[in-house]
Amino acid sequence: IAQIAAGFLGGNRDEGESSNGNPLDFRNGDFALFETSALLYTVNIVTTVVPSSVQVTGGSNYTFAGIGSIVGSGGISHLGTGRVTLDTTNDFEGAVAVTNGGILRISKASALGVAGGGVEIGSGSALEVAGGMTTREEPMVLSGVGPTAGGALVNVSGGNILRGGVRLLTNTLFGVTAGSLSLNDPLTNVAADTITVDSAGAFTFANSILGAGVAVVKQGSGQGSLAGPLNTVTSVVTHAGTLRLVGGGPAVSVFATAGVPVYLAAGTTLQTLEESLGGPLGTFNDPQITLSSNT
């Protein structure tokens, strides 16, 4: 085990700082463990490195940066409660897991490795997206509202597009503190009753919502967009901001069934667009819209 607290990763003799402050060599093929007893928590990856896997523990905030990249068959596990920032372009093949109340922030389109490796964000943990990018096709599993109730998936800056599809295991909160975030592939609900979007910017479900029946709740002063077909959405409640219903094509309705209730609280706005995001005209299938006073 290469137990690394800070330093450089690059080549087969890479300087780092071990947990006791002594110099440490990292060699390709090592299991790289990043733990909490260090003075600095920035890891400069200076070339292509091939750990068997990477694990981060403890409550420290780590940043992986530099001109290098992480490759190989292994993955990354964030088992701590701090924030881990991946600011490198990576081609590792394994899965990414954040499962113990921590936060993983990505700021590169390939930060999560090759397409198809998979991402799991456990209940109480979060994935933050920053910068402005279109990610590789990474299937993602989400649960819960995040460590600070700000979201299990949060856009913190820039205009970002996530590809690969999302599966929800429990009621889940999506957040946009700034910028915009679009989920461009289908979302499949496994066991959630409610999907909540809290947006100060713009959030878009740009594809189908499938699986078990689920209610969608819109919070925050920004915009939330739903593009069909919303096959299993049972209701939409807008507490604040703007709700956009976007037609999904000439033979596709935003709502799969007629009469889905849509509630708009006071001070909110409903926009209906007969054109999908870059696509042809669509329909809405007669949702039952209820307006609060002063809407």
Structure description:
The chain starts with a strand and ends with a strand. The protein has a 24-stranded mixed β-sheet that branches. Strands 18-21-23-26-29-31-33 form a seven-stranded parallel β-sheet, with no helix packed on it. It has a three-stranded parallel β-sheet with strand order 7-10-13, with no helix packed on it. The radius of gyration is 21 Å and the shape is elongated. The protein has strands at 2-4, 6-9, 14-17, 23-26, 31-34, 42-45, 48-49, 53-56, 62-65, 69-72, 76-78, 83-86, 91-92, 96-98, 103-106, 119-121, 126-129, 134-137, 140-144, 153-155, 159-163, 166-176, 180-183, 187-189, 194-199, 202-205, 209-211, 214-219, 223-227, 233-238, 242-246, 261-264, 269-273, 288-291. A hairpin with a 5-residue loop joins β3 and β4 (23-26). It is mainly beta. The chain is built from no helices and 34 strands. The chain is 0% helix and 48% strand.
End-to-end distance, in Å? 60 Å
Note the beta-strand portion: over 45%
Q: What portion of residues is helical?
A: under 10%
Q: What is the mean predicted local confidence, pLDDT? A: 85
Radius of gyration (Å): 21 Å
Count of distinct strands: 34
State the major sheet.
Answer: 24 strands, mixed
Q: Treating each run of at least 4 consecutive H or I residues as one helix, how many helices?
A: 0
Low-confidence stretches: 1-8, 10-23, 276-282
Counting helices, strands and paired strands, the structural category is mainly beta
